[in-house]
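Repro case for the chain-ordering regression, as requested:
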Amino acid sequence: MTYRIEGKTGTWELVCGLEVHCEIISNSKVFSGASAEFGGEPNDHVAFLDAGFPGQLPVLNEKCVEQCIKTGFGLNAKINKHSVFDRKNYFYGDLPTGYQITQLFYPIVGEGYLDVTNEDGGISRIGIERLHLEQDAGKSIHDMHPTRSYLDFNRAGVGLMEIVSKPDVRSPEEAGDYLRKLRSIVRYLGTCDGNMDEGSMRCDINVSVRKVGETEFRHRVEIKNVNSVKFVMQAIDLEAHRQVELYEAGQTFPQETRLFDPENMETRSMRSKENALDYRYFPDPDLPPLDITDEYIENIRKNLPELPEVKKARFMDELGLSEYDARILVSDRETALYFETAAKGRDAKKVANWVMGDLFAALNREYIAIENSPVSPENLGALVDLITDGTISGKIAKEVFEIMFETKKDPAAIVEEKGLKQVSDTGAIEKMIDEILAANPDKVAEIKAGKDKLKGWFVGQIMKASQGKVNPALANQLLEQKLKN
Amino acid sequence: MTDLTELTLTDALKGLKEKKFSSVELTKAYLGKMEELRRLNAYITETPEKALQMAEESDNRRAKGEAGKLEGIPLGIKDMFCTKGTKTTAASRILSNFIPPFEATTTQRLWDAGAVLLGKTNTDEFAMGSSTITSYYGVTHNPHDENKVPGGSSGGSAAAVAAHMCAGATGTETGGSIRHPASFCKVSGFKPTYGRCSRYGVIAYASSLDEPGVLARSVEDCARMIEVMAGHDPKDSTSSHREVPEFHKMLDKNIKGMKIGIPKEYQELLPANWEKAVQFLKDEGAVLMDVDMPHTEEAGMVYYVISQGEATTNLARYDGARYGVRENGETLDEMYMNTRMKGFGQEVRNRMILGTFFTSAKGYHDYFVPAQKMRSLIKQDFDKAFEKVDVLFSPAVPIEPFTIEEAKHGAAKGRFNDNYLMPSCLTGVPAGCANNGLQVIGRMWDDATVLKVLDVVEMCK
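-- result from build under test --
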């Protein structure tokens, strides 16, 4: 159902935009040679520039430029050949130079879009306003000492991509799927690890509401630094309802920045627009404008990995998977890679069922990531082969799979070792059937009298006697023949 | 033995090469002069022990036949250049305890060429001024008249060169800070094209204008120093990849047929030696002509808006949190206020306030953007002039040095103080002042021609 808020004075809709900060995957920071690795002892990864020493100058890390362009392609966006770095000025302990280098006026990536699944199961297109390259700040630690604050500059100067959406989001569900899609894309591209818990992907939300039918935007509230998809969805819903209640009570509220508190399920005021900072943006004279060539951009485009949407379409068109299966299998790069390896040269649909069925269940049960699966994709494929060529039955296969999951062994070895090979020798099966029929003359009589259902009971008996090793189709066929005689 | 400090840098190099004296002897002579004239307050920090050690190492290198281009030459370094292990203050209280853990690229190149560090010279605080009176370490006196200022901001370097307290010195220009004190102290000063010398390790004032350069007793001395300092540095994104010629070898004293333009706007006030110098250049075969530089008058305002706007963000890092002097407070904001209020002098604080306004949302629109546009027009003045002439020629500072008292009462704000200097800073072209107070300005990257003409100008006493 379309997301609406029913108020006393009418029906309201949400108008929302997201600003997502993604920490760029690169060896070194965006303007210094220090390591950009997450963690480490405080102030382990700090160059003199990152600590704001006098006379230090920024030198652009080209890897970060490449990562922005890649991500731009992932967002179906225009890559700007000319971009400029600006200084955003403010004082804070964890901002060592007193300004952040960012791109206000000329970002490296311009307009694009992401298609997301909305609450009706349909597709909504969310516009991307821009992606710009900037540096992260350090970290203030306030809880180590009663009266002092400590500073850790490991993160200061790590490259960030800020991805700004247009105010096209109309429901918490769309916001949630936007974030999931975005995370999936940056992970596919290897441009950001998308880890919201560790803060390598962070979200600011702009929320406003308006009556359905209104075309103008009402003023908005910004919610800073929400760190999970679930919280983003909750924060939007809460804030939208808060605004509707205020409007309907005839109250005004300021254009302000708020914080989301998931424990108390509320948003709280941080600062209002009246004392909003003037960041005094101006072009950074230490960095010449960034001018890149068509050739450079084209080179990056040529080497892009297949993106989830394209892969999904291919899974549906070429491999005949359903939309649902394809969507699940492309949702992250590792799953897609696993599936593609396992399905290579095989019935994709069968492999998909095994991946999404037994494999997902076992991995979830043991909390194992798919890239660390004890059953390798090659072995899972081999297992499917054993079913296809009739070596084992589907039922036995499930047993073999569990052994594979425990022992990491390949399925053929397990089948051999445990003697699980399916019996396809008609003579042996006929002998088995004869014995069972002879032992149950009453039931045979009932079948001949027309109680067809009992045939299933006989098949069960055959499977039991053979410990499941008889090919069930063959058993059925032979049983029919015997009963006719 | 004669006083070794009387030798120019070029002559001292010759003497060292011919083993007439050692670097240790030369260095000792300079250290003696520094002690004798300490009252001039040309140096903030003297480094005699380091100097003697470096001189000894230099002599060893020379003995092994490994002499560099400036082997054994004792230099003064403006206290805006970070020197590893040697206190670097920008003449500010806020950095009065700052010992850089790294070396500026330009000074590193001087040491790699064999030069010897005598000490760090005085400057206006963060190079903001043209009298060297805003230094936290007190005013520097003009060696030619100790009641007068040496000019600035590289006043310590100019005074040290003029008083023979070093063989040469580094300086920095943002709005004339090399040529101004060179003119006041009657020494040679040269500011190369913006991008020739790396700014890495040079404490920033206004990044789009700051350019490291040199002061010495002659143009040839300047040329020898600058060719060592210049050249691409991967640590400065604005530094140029262009090849650096051996400037000192290009000073052939031949300017026959060279077209020299004299901007009409730079002739409003002319010094006593002007007519003679013009005639001298004509006699040397140069073709002199007037050129128009119609936007000259605007340069001062443009300079103030841009330099102060940039400075206010460049100096935001001095907050007492990580290095330098800290004045505690109850809150973070209070610590910032106390530190910056007590750490910076009045002139720096004034410029911070103006710069904050010029870069505010409103100020940026009303002042900063128009200033950038005007900067382009000023650049066009130069482009047009250089279509007709090879270099421009004018007085550097057409007035006599003012007294320290006059400087304290704002003499440096007079319109003839830096009118002829600022336009060339805003455009980044190379410019130098000969030791007779006359300047030559050239095309972008044509530093060689500027030095060549200056070398001839200097012959006119």
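Ordering looks correct now. The two ends of chain A are 61 Å apart (CA to CA).
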